[in-house]
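Sharing a chain and its predicted structure for anyone who wants a worked example. Both blocks are below, sequence first, tokens second.
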Amino acid sequence: MGMRTGQAQTPAGPATTATAQPASSLANATTQGTAATPARNLLVLGDSLSAEYGLPRGSGWVSLLSQRLDKERPGWQVVNASISGETTSGGRTRLPALLAKHQPRTVVIELGGNDALRGLSLSQTREHLEAMVQASRSSGARVLLLGMQMPPNYGPDHAARFAALYREVAQKFQIGLVPFFLRAIADRPDIAEWFQPDRIHPTVKSQPLMLDTVWPELKKLL
């Protein structure tokens, strides 16, 4: 999803399958927190791109983020609440309970790709993203929004308006933004190395580059 190469395909799986594991099962999840100094939680709310769809457990970019935080920002613990097939509507519905349970200091929102593939209206996507940003900020968390882009067969005008949507939401609320989450891998000629056969979901090889795309903006919020 969000690719600029190839044709659009049906999102993988319903929103009730392929749930990514919480921080306690992520590779090398941070254990620096103590009773006196509780761990600082970072919540990732995403879809299959963050839920390790088609990948070995522990190899996705969120797991790699947990490992990097252990080394570079000790005391942070990652909670991966991503689900394959998730839309902005589903994320909006689930977020309040996640905020109450984990009380994250930082929230990363990686949603919208499935909205585009399912032909949902841009106004609905914007409304749901704005509601998630507002809920996160009201809970005291900083927010990073990961932008997506649509496949070219949807038409240049609609694709441009979809991409701009993320920038406009980020500017409205003055939050962190990665304009295009898959920027590092989307236009590579050797697409089979970077995307699974569906040409939507990145391979294991792509995950470090995806993390490197997110990291410069994310570390400003830690």
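Comments welcome. The longest strand covers residues 40-46.
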